[in-house]
Amino acid sequence: MSDASTDRADRPAEVTDPLLWGLATAVADAHQADGEGVCVSPSCVGAAWPCAAWDSAQEGMRAARTATGDAPSGRPGGLGTDTSTGTVPAQRDQAVASAA
After folding, report:
1. Listed residue (56, 20, 14, 34) closest to 6, CA to CA
2. How far apart are CA 98 and CA 100, in angstroms?
3. Exposed, middle or buried, 56 (CB in 10 Å: 0-12/13-18/19+)?
4. What does the pLDDT look like over 74-100, one tens digit per residue?
């Protein structure tokens, strides 16, 4: 199982984005290792564990725990997504820098 449960009673108090938390934990739960260290998810087709999806789920759980004090002003929940691109500003800036 993942490092956390989707059960509301088991969700850490510092979670500021319950929807992201629930989705991330569901992905992590679906991408567990078998006895041989291979991801059991059919979408990974024999990939070594931890797979990319499990790693992404862990990042999602960290993002869902962002302290409300870290949230950009005017953006409750913390991520500050740019609605024109669907990315958070730091990701957008990295993508622009990489393209240059």
Report:
1. 20
2. 5
3. middle
4. 444 444 444 444 444 454 455 445 554
Separation between Cα atoms, residue 89 and residue 27, nearest integer Å: 24
For residue 62, count other CB atoms closer than 10 A to its CB.
11
CB 9 within 8 A of CB 46: no
Q: What are 33's strand-pairing partners?
A: 39
42 and 30 in contact (C-beta within 8 Å)?
Answer: no
What pLDDT digit, counting tens, does each position of 20-30 carry? Answer: 999 999 999 99
Q: Dump pLDDT digits (tens) for 44-61.
A: 988 999 999 999 999 999
pLDDT for the residue numbered 82: 46
Tokens matching residue 71: 């949230």
pTM of the model: 0.58
